Amino acid sequence: MLEPVKVWAVELTRDAPAEEVEGSLALEAEALVFTPKDGARPARRFALASVRKVRRLRGSPVLMVVREEAGLLARTAFYFVQPPPLDRPRAERPGLGAFRNPQRKARRENASYFGVWNQEKRPIVREWERAVRRALPG
After folding, report:
1. Domain boundaries along the sequence of the chain
2. What is the CATH number assigned to the segment(s) 5-135?
3. CB atoms < 10 A from the CB of 135, how many?
């Protein structure tokens, strides 16, 4: 089994705001276990039997886990580095600056940030992807 690793978990649902939660990720015999650093939040167990897909997002230090909960697919992204701000940026300057696309700039900056960290974290994210896939039943 792998040693627990520090990650930031983000639940990717349409009806809930994206919130990053720092904690540790561990792989147990029958579950992925995310334990938040903040003791006020409970640990989350993702049964391996419910996991439908696990993959490393190319070009980024992110492990995506897709699982089935109550007949619906749920996605959780585990970032192996602190993710950039999840809020959408606002135009800062009036005038000509208002014609620039702040979302495009933020995407470009985030891609650059992830590209730099991906070089360092790629081996560990690959190792986690392979270990989780091997642990899946069936």
Report:
1. 5-135
2. 2.30.29.30
3. 18
